[in-house]
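Example A, followed by Example B.
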Amino acid sequence: MIVWINGAFGAGKTSTARELTGIVPDSVLYDPALIGDALRALLPRKRLDEVADHQDLPSWRRLVVETAAALFAEVGGVLVVPMTLLRQEHRDEIFGALAARRIPVRHVLLAPAETILHERIARREEAGRSDRNGRNGQTDRTGRAADGPDRHLAPYREALDWLTADAYVVDNSTLTPRQTALRIAEAIRTDTAAVCEIVQTPEPTRETVAAGVLLFDAQDRVLLVDPTYKPDWEFPGGVVEAGEPPARAGVREVEEELGVALDRAPGLLVIDWEPPKHPAYGGLRFLFDGGRLPDRAIAALRLPGPELREWRFVTEEEAAGLLPPERYARLHWALRARERGTVLNLESSTPVP
């Protein structure tokens, strides 16, 4: 099990985590900030300059999960993780990958009053300024120079809605780290801090076959969905199960994901060979035409909480800003095939001559 202690810079995550490891039996402190430190030493400066935060590096998010899995294999027990995680898509990617490895996560948010956070951050930055000559200034846990409380608090405020809905919240305004840790330990023992509910999608071990279904509204905008278990938007659909026809898999996934029961088998638009690109294995990708949804079906669309965050009808131009390039190219050619009443054979999202 992982106890992920979240919160703004200055919330007391690390001191609480240290106390918690002395209370929870067989627990080990695992600080992903060390992975950020390693990447800053290993990656070229040009790559580091491309991101504002090391959490934006796909390698950081993947290594956080892989290191957790390696620690479990080595020592087992409970990993206590003090790490600010304010972007929901990053939380979904990391927690989803942990769930796929059957590592449950209990998500805890330390939420002292903002006035207290402001004071703590200001004190840290003042200490950093006074020590600047010896240590080159104060940095936060992302490795960036600290330059004012609001810089840390603004993204925290923006994330509070989803954080408080997702995590077990502890107001530690008047609690010591020891008292905070005792409260968390009791919440774990009584299951008040429940295991985070997120879809478990085992990572493939070889090439996969996946089927997506394009659904349209009366304006011919296409329906996209935002999965919780991976970054970027997607088409409704999923992996084809062993022995299952791809078109039937697409119909099944649409009903499971959105509650839409298609009344006919969807027609094939494109078949695309996605080559392996480490760490992904690639495979065959089918896109089918599910047709226009009537208004009553659109009004009845539902989302399974652990699997999808949102759905949206978009134009082709709008889709370009939501889908990764190869997925958008697949959509582009699927729409051309729909216009022409044909089927296109693609490799790497490019038509085969």
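Example B, a separate protein, is given below in the same form.
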Amino acid sequence: MNRRPARGWDGLRATAGAAYVLCLAIFLLLPALAIFPASIGESEFLEFPPSGLTLHWFQDVLADQDWLDSAAFSFGLALATAVLATFLAVLVGIAQLRYHRLPKGLLAVLLAPLWVPHVAVATGLFSLCLSWGWVGRAWVLVLANTMLALPLSVSLVLAAFSVFEGNLWTAAAVLGARPRTIVRTILLPLSATALLSSLVLAFQSAWDETVLALFIGPVDTPPLSVRIYAYVSQNLTPAVAAVAAMVAVLSIVTVTVLGLARKAPGRRS
């Protein structure tokens, strides 16, 4: 007698939960999806819905060397950040696997950038770099973005390394494997999914970062996010929507790659 109402209530809660998630997704994605029709409008100003359709804004952006230089700089910056952050995270994971625990306070220091506002970090870095003459140096921006992306990479790598057998390193060493061989042939293949996820998330973190680039980034060829910010402050044409649409496509591809990477172990098994 009491089971049917309970099942009906569970079904109602599941439907309400699904409707809530759908509405939330629409609310979050609608502004991002609106840039696509806005980027192909014929008007000289941003409008939604567009009065006419054209692709010449994409042609203008792709023919503008300034936009291309900023995109290339952002890509190199994000790629360097992803590789460096993942490399450092692997070193932390090896230390945890080799010594079974990390020094006290080290994990808190590594995760500290998650708790500190980016504008506070950027302000402090600007003061230091200004006194040392490092403002506008690309390598400084790479290190700063690596600091912000490192908590994401460390969390993923530590989670992957935590499932390894504690004596894995010792067993491989007893069989004659050198540390470099253990890392290359055992640890990296077993944690490939986590490493790929770390690369993707660190890349996306540096690609989207604007605050640090505004404070300590180069001026002649700024990152793409900074150029978009500067362009919007002076112009409001569909060209910026075209750039935003291409960046959104890159983000969608990134999320897709990350999702496929997480499903890969299940398919192999």
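On Example B: The chain has one domain: 65-268.
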